[in-house]
Amino acid sequence: MRKLMLFGFLAAAGFVAFLVYGGVSTVVSSGTAYAGTYSYCVPQHGLWGGEDAGLGERDAATLDDESLDITAQIIGIGKERDESPRAWQIAIQAGKTESNLHNLDYGDRDSLGIFQMRPSMGWGTPEQLQDPVYQINKFYDVLLTVPGWEEMRPGDAAQAVERSAFPDRYHRWEAMAVFLIAELGGVTDIDDCRDLPPADERAALAIDFALAQIGKPYVWGATGPGTFDCSGLTLRAWEAAGVTIPRVSQDQFLGAGMPVPLDEALPGDLIFWGAGRSPRAVDHVALYLGNNEVVHAPQPGDVVKRAPLWDGGKLIPTAIRPGPATQLT
Question: How far apart are CA 77 and CA 74, in angstroms?
Answer without folding.
Answer: 5
